Known about the structure:
40% helix; Rossmann fold
Amino acid sequence: MSALKKLRAVAPAGASAALAPRDGRPEEIFAAGERAPGQLRNPRLPYRRELVETADGATLHVRSYGPADAPPIVFAHGFGGRLEYWNPQIRAFADSHRVIAFDQRGHGRSGRGRRRFTVPLLGEDLAAVLAHMLDPGERAVIVGHSMGGIGTLSWAQGFPADVAARAAGVLLANTCATNVLDHTELIPRTPWNAPVRAALLRTFLASQAPSLPAVLDRALVRRKFVAPSAPAELVEFVHAITSTCPNVTRGRWGAALLDFDVTAAAGSLTVPTTVLTGQLDLALKPSGGRGIAAAAQAAGRECRYVEVPGAGHCSNLEIPAVFDREVLRLCEAHADRSGRGLVG
């Protein structure tokens, strides 16, 4: 057992709070998650907190739930999110897996650092988390949602040798590999707005202005980020998460997502990969996921495409049973392959 795993293993079995960080400050609690119902509620489970320092001075906040020696799953949230976005999956997998979730740069409890926000930086941050949290030779199923999926593709493109070394499988949910303007209906396409639509979207996504009034923000979540059938408490939970994202973080990452192309990363996905989309996703339409799957399959990679009827952008919250089944499928496939001596 490595020194890092030994440290995890000696955590008090009933601990419900993280270890104190080096600066000794208490950990911020996502208050809305304390009030949320059912699977959305902050899990009352032991976890370890670890801080990953990047070369440019950002501190990435990471939590690890579950047995220290269990197969790891790494969850990367999307634009405007925080690690509590994965509350249902933490609950679902922490008994049998080591669930690793982190706040993306500038989100939640993670710092912004000194570098300009770019899609390659997303991949570098994921690489830093994997290097810190996984032992040599240890491989995780990596799950990226929306911007977290873009970051996972960026990691695969920037660190192709790490895909086989660090990943047991990859799930890319509600995401795309090119400019989000090509795949979003945040501003619908109409005959009259074609000349100005792109400019309006660029202004909206890159804005660091204060958030919309709460009622309008909730309406945006309801109309664009979840399916019409989503319950009010799910809308409130998503709204509460996005409301914690600082304006400067939102604007900087929004600008970073306007012009990029990580399609070539599909050829580096040398492990079993699932691309999952929601048929009713208007934030990032299924066209984005279809493009990734097509590129991976054209490169001869093992890639499964799943488009879920009735689901919107927040698939892991809207259809957790379906989402979790796809994650588990990748975990079990890796276990089977490992048992047959096909992978390390």
